[in-house]
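Can't paste images in this forum, so I'm doing it all in text. The chain is below; anyone willing to post the predicted structure tokens underneath?
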Amino acid sequence: MNLINKLKLVFGKLFALPWYFLAFSAYPVFAMLSFNVGQVEPDAGSRVLLASVLFGALLFILFWIFLRQVHRAAFLSLLWQVLFFTYGHVYNLINEKAPDFNPTPWMLAGWAVWALLAVWWATRPKLGFASAAAGLNGITLVLLIISLGQTLSGSMQRSGQRVAADHAPIQQLHPPAGQPLPDVYYFILDSYGRADLLQQAYQYDNSQFISTLEARGFYVAKCSQSNYPRTDVSVGSSLNLLYLQNLDSTFTPDNTDRTRLWDALRHNTVRYNLESIGYQTVAFSTGFDWSELRDADMFYSPPPFSSGLTEFEGLFMRSTLARYAEELGWVNADTVSAQNFRDRFNMVFNSLDGIARNPDPTLAYIHVISPHPPFVFGPNGENTDPAQFWNDQRLYLPDPYAKGYQNQLTNLNKKMEAAIDTILADSSTPPIIIIQGDHGPWLQPTSKKFSILNAYYLPGHNAELYPSVSPVNSFRLVFDDYFGANYPLLRDVTYDSPVPNVFKFTEIPNKCQ
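Text version of the structure:
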């Protein structure tokens, strides 16, 4: 018997075994990872993958004990897994289409009927299911390979000292010889609105915080708008000093794939230029993989919340029949998620003194998910339950959103004041500090949702700043003034775009006077 025939015999025997139920138990995990590719790291699914496979194996063992037939037990295990893993998806779909309808009693009854029918079908004497094993093995294997491939291909390889956009405007920097290089702090305060918007929308007086910044030497741009409406398009532009329309040939109106944008955000012009002259990059975990610079020289991330689920695990649980574990009080995924947000927030502000004391020149990229929801802090830093700010469909309504936003903003202001004082006191060379909102608060009309806080600490260079300066020009100013570059200022323009066509831009005027 030659080698080919031997291999055919081995694979034939292998595919005759009913292992499809175990392959299928892994499929929902990889399918959700592939659907959220770029949002989470593949290892976020490790614990839930183990639990899912153990669940499939346990079902098989229980059915085998009662049926004493391997193929029947495997087939029934597969059917029950399909019911288990599809429950939450169907529930969410019904809830989305009919938010006032409670599908729980009807769905539980329906799934119970389907489960009993599956038992009846799998135990029919005339059906043996052995002949179906090879086909089911092949189908589940293909599903698993496709979802696994999408997950791994979407988890982009990272390496320092490169830029990801094909038109990234890199330049060789020429800082003054013989002078120490200043640390560069780039704070993105997610959803932080401009002072006049906060006053109009929430009757929130932010003048004290603005005065505090100005008293410490900051220039606060009174009429600044973000260039784009969402974090990735906004920060991807500001870190690359260019409007997205001109940054990469793939950013076309009909393109809905943002993985190239996320790679351009992580491997951006600012980082490349500064690392090329000896800067170390420091970054922090945000909970959103696409925004994290995990290959930075120093990447700060708190340990996982040890007593419960991660955000991905909570999302996966809600997509299955196990969603009722929350309603029964066995698990509170919102509490765990909220603590993860607090841990990441606190890690930022507990680490700044060490960064400021580091003798090496540092680019600190600090994306803080605040005052952006979830609303996990009160005005004095006390813990709040994020669920109290959304409705039964987990949607934010204007009044609860306004309350949570103001609470979180007040706490963030206090933290930022202390952070600025720490950075200025511990820096041996006057640093460069940029504090920006990536976009304005949610639930605002189009004409207002771009109004952002935009503040600069550029000692000796404030004269180049102006009231309507926008993020796309921030590092053009910095590189020209401090590092001898030649980046002409661009016209400050704001563009709106829809989801999923995030590169289909419409210009929005700046009406600030």
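The longest helix spans residues 398-426. The longest strand covers residues 362-368.
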